[in-house]
Amino acid sequence: MNAFGGTLLIGVFIFVLAVFIGFDLISKVPATLHTPLMSGTNAIHGIVLVGALSIAAGVHGALGTVIAFLAVLLGTINVVGGFVVTDRMLQMFKRRPEPERPTPK
């Protein structure tokens, strides 16, 4: 096995391990903590997006450009989607205005 194959195999192993550990950790979070957790992970996803942009700036070749574009696109969708979901969850905790009562005549 050459150096690239070994490095790729280690990278895939770390990715699969991270998926299992992440799923296990998230499944144990109570529902009341999901909004603060989403806000925190949005900050992390923003850092990931900045990393994708910086990697995309130094890419050479057509395949690298396509992969970098997809990384930036998916990172952007992830950040925006996280903020939309967080906003919708926070809207659930706001009080609704009371309807106006008709005045007696």
Textual characterization of the structure:
The structure is a single chain. The chain has helices at residues 3-27, 34-57, 62-91. The model has no long low-confidence stretch (mean pLDDT 81). It has 105 residues and is mainly alpha-helical. The chain has one domain.
Average of pLDDT = 81
Major sheet description: none
Q: Please indicate the percent range of residues in DSSP E strands (runs of 2 or more).
A: under 5%
Task: Determine Rg (CA atoms, Å).
Answer: 22 Å
Question: Which features would summarize this protein structure in a list?
Answer:
105 residues; mainly alpha; 0% strand
Topology:
Blueprint: H1 3-27, H2 34-57, H3 62-91
Helix pairs in contact: 2-3
Q: What is the gist of this entry?
A:
The protein has 105 residues and is mainly alpha-helical. The protein has helices spanning 3-27, 34-57, 62-91. The mean pLDDT is 81.
